[in-house]
Structure formats: C-alpha cells, structure tokens
Design a protein that fits this description.
The protein is built from 15 helices and four strands. With 304 residues, the chain is mostly helical. The strands form two sheets. The protein has a two-stranded antiparallel sheet. It has a two-stranded antiparallel sheet with strand order 3-4. It is globular, with a radius of gyration of 20 Å. Keywords: Membrane, Repeat, Transmembrane, Transmembrane helix.
Amino acid sequence: MSEQMSSVQREPEHLLCPITHVMFQDPVLVDSGRTYERWAILKHWQLRGQPNDPLSNLDLASDRLAVDWQKRREVEAFVQEHLDYTPDGWEDLHIPPPQESQQIRFSERRANRCRRMKNVVLLGPPAFLTVCWFLAFRIAADSSSLIFLLRENPRNDWVQSNACAALANLAFADLEKSSLIVQAGGVTLLMAAMQMHPNQDQVLRPAMAALANLAFESADNSAAIILAGGAERLTEAMERRSESPLVLRNAFAALERLAIASEAGRSAIAQAGGIQSILTALKKHPMDAVLQMHGCAALECLMI
C-alpha cells in the first residue's frame, strides 16, 4: 500500500490507500467489511488475466466489487479537516463525487458464489435526488412517501426512474424495510412502472433492481412478486429490451432471486418463457462476460 503522506498529517490507518487514489469511488471485495484492501483488487485483476494496476483501470465496477459509501464519506471528512493534504498522485482535490447508486444484492446461499452487483444510475437533478433520499429514510415510519411518488406520477418517466431507484437502495440488505415496501403496495407500483414505460431503460433498470432487492432472501416478498405477475413482466421486458445488456443484467438478478425463493417461482418463470429469454439473451451478447455470468447464475437457480 502507498503510505506517502503529507509531512504534517498521516491518514488514519483504516483509510490508507482509498484516500490516495479512490477518493470518491471506494471499491471493496464483497464481505471484506470497511477495510480497503489494495491487494484484494490486485488479486481480482490477476484472476481475470489482467495485470493492469487496478487503480489506473477504469473498469473497477464488477461482479465482485461494491462501493463502500460510508468509507467514502469518511475520506471526504478527513480531507475537509486537513485542507493542506493532497493524496499521492493527485494534482488537486477538485474531483466531482458520483451519486450513490442503486445496488442489487445477490444471494450468498449458493456455494462459491457470494456477489453483489453495483449498477450505476444517474438519477437526475440534485434537488429531486435530495427529496428521494429524504423520503427513502421516511418510509420506515411513513410507507406512503416514495409509494406516493410512484402512484401519483405514473406517466412521468423521470419521477418513476428516481423513485424506483430510491426504493432499490432502500430495500438493499434490509428485510424490514423491504417488507414495508411490499405491504404498502410497492410491488404493484413497480410492475405498473414497467408496463407504463416498457421501452425506457432508465425506468426498467431501477424497477428491476428494486424487485431483485425485495425478493432477496424473502419467500413472502418473492411470492408477492410472483402473484403480481413479476415473472411475466420481467420476461416481457427482456424480450423487448434484448439489445440492452444493463436491463438484461438486472432482469437476471430479479429472476435469480425469485427462482431461489420457491418452486412456485421457478415454475412461474418457466411458464412465462423466462428460460428461453435468458438463453436468447446469452446468445445475443456472447462477449459480455458480466451478463454471461449473471445469466448462467439465473439458469442455475432455475434448475434447482
């Protein structure tokens, strides 16, 4: 790890390295907690047959890496407190931070497959993002907040995209909030968003991510999604947007969750033509390694 510090100030030990090159994008190996392990990134790229220094490679977002937003905020706070500090290799600190993006949580039940996938979604003007962020944290006490946005603005693809993405983030790794979303009618509204905007990737992607996160390790939520026609909606979207790898990846994630949950889910997906749609997508995008991996994972779950 690089340990070249300002002559005045040293980085806190647990922030070593991310503050050096990854100020606003801190990838960490899944389940490694909040320790940024540069060796883990190097090992990841070595396993993929790319000897590049990962800190100079733009394609860090992958199936095995996720962004630790809490640590990124810690790094920002450190730099704000020590304005004379400039990380090694940086000319200045004026680099715009990315927005926190929707994430899809993958099951850790299957042997040798413990993954999370980060899907970047540009969510729009800051003012609306702030509202969505605020409303997302209100849902625990007021489940009608984001649900209200979806219900009252069905034809506004911009609102639908942002609200779906906020729900996806809210449902990530939180079964209690996921249950609240389902109880408030969130599944029906996510389906409606996909039906109302069948050709809008900016709506389909976060809606699918939200479904995937809601279904994660929850048989009840998965059953609610299947009952609402989730298998059919996902299959239709895959067929309609077969040229969009990002839509397909999110669809695979949702189908994987539903397939793991129950035999009823696997049956519904098969009857809706989901298996054939996955195979067609895999044939259409043979060079997309990430899509291939997630598609194969979904097929594996369907064959349980």
